[in-house]
Design a protein that fits this description.
- The protein is globular.
- It has 3 domains: about 15-75, Arc Repressor Mutant, subunit A; about 90-135; about 150-190 and about 200-340, 2-Layer Sandwich (Nucleotidyltransferase, domain 5), CATH 3.30.420.
- The chain has 13 helices and 5 strands.
- By secondary structure, the protein is α/β, with parallel strands linked by helices.
């Protein structure tokens, strides 16, 4: 038996006010969340949907819906608590938020809590609390790159289609090279992990050469076919592709997802493809390495094996990579792609619109 969805009825004039709260960049985050709860419920969203969408617990959703139904917009305000009264007025809090979002310090690229505290006359701990309440983190930055590939939409749909609905009687491989993996040795031995102390390693190192890891990730099973080679020219690429082709069932089609590295489009590579019609290349858009699932495997390999590794030669480095991948292949775990092509295109479209608006 299905549980009926609770839907609050908005009082006259409240929708416009609640939507204004949501749009206001300087409104406290808690106020925006409560407005989203009420508006979402009025649109017919269930408590579970609101909990998933807003990252809030079901009891929290229930509490603010109860308060709105009992007292209207006044019920969404914080109730008086015992203890010392607030020393930061809403106007000062709004000014802190405004300066954080719209201004920069006279020297430097972003505010620290102490710098901004000196300007507005607050203790740095008060600035920190205001930032936490509004989920502001000026010290952090996220990197991005919008693809300018003219065939971006076509390539996204092609690659995502292979992930979520692979063709029958075919194997889909996510392929790439991890080049210039350094064989590093530390200048002094580190100390082991112990209670109350992290393991240690020196910040400096000795270089003993490099290798390139060629990897083909079976999207369905998570198994990795790999080979370490000294360089990453078209000769090495062809050598590895031949190995992959020989290790797979000859009755199955092979679909390889690759980036736009020039080696992958070399005339000799194209000639080889013409002689092997069961192998198909699918290129991701330019500046879209996040679309290649094998990058997830490279990240895993770096964090779990390479980052803290100390070796004396390239041979030791390659042996450690072989051991890690061979152990992993005994119980492989596939990476599950969940984002649809339309969701990706919507996010990229919003990114482009924001970029154009700011420039």
């Amino acid at each position: 038996m299905s549980i009926p969805v609770r839907s609050v009825e908005l009082l006259e004039g409240d929708r416009a006010i609640l939507e204004e709260w949501v749009r206001c960049r300087t409104a406290p985050q808690r106020q925006v969340e409560r407005a989203r709860i009420v508006l979402g419920s009025a649109e017919g969203k269930s408590g579970y949907e609101l909990s998933e969408e807003l990252g809030l617990s079901r009891p929290t959703i229930q509490r603010w819906l109860d308060r709105y139904e009992a007292d209207g917009l006044e019920g969404l305000e914080d109730r008086a608590r015992s203890g010392r009264p607030r020393t930061v007025t809403p106007e000062v809090e709004a000014e802190v938020v405004r300066r954080t979002l719209e201004e920069k310090p006279p020297e430097g690229t972003h505010w620290s809590s102490r710098l901004l505290g000196e300007v507005v006359g607050l203790h740095h701990s008060q600035i920190t609390r205001i930032w936490a309440a509004h989920r502001l983190k000026p010290h952090r930055i996220r990197y991005f790159k919008l693809s300018t590939d003219p065939r971006f939409v076509e390539k996204v749909r092609d690659v995502v289609g292979l992930y979520v609905a692979p063709p029958e009687r075919a194997i889909v491989f996510s392929f790439d090279e991890k080049s210039q993996i350094q064989a590093l040795d530390r200048t002094q031995p580190g100390l082991p992990l112990k209670k109350g102390r992290a393991g240690t390693m020196t910040h400096d190192y000795k270089r003993h050469g490099t290798t390139t890891l060629f990897a083909a990730l079976d999207v369905a099973t998570g198994e990795v076919i790999h080979r370490c080679l000294p360089r990453h020219r078209h000769q090495e690429f062809l050598r590895f592709i031949r190995e992959v082709e020989k290790q797979t069932d000859p009755d199955l089609e092979l679909h390889l997802i690759l980036d736009n590295y020039a080696t992958h489009k070399h005339p000799k590579v194209k000639a080889w493809l013409e002689r092997h019609p069961r192998v198909h290349f699918h290129f991701i858009p330019t500046s879209s390495s996040w679309l290649n699932l094998v990058e997830r495997f490279f990240s895993e390999l770096t964090q779990r094996q390479l980052k803290r590794l100390a070796v004396h030669s390239v041979g030791e480095l390659e042996a450690s990579i072989d051991r890690y991948i061979n152990r992993r292949n005994k119980d492989p775990k596939p990476f599950t792609w969940t984002a649809s092509s339309e969701l990706i295109l919507q996010k990229v479209r919003r990114g482009n619109e924001t970029f154009e608006a700011l420039h």
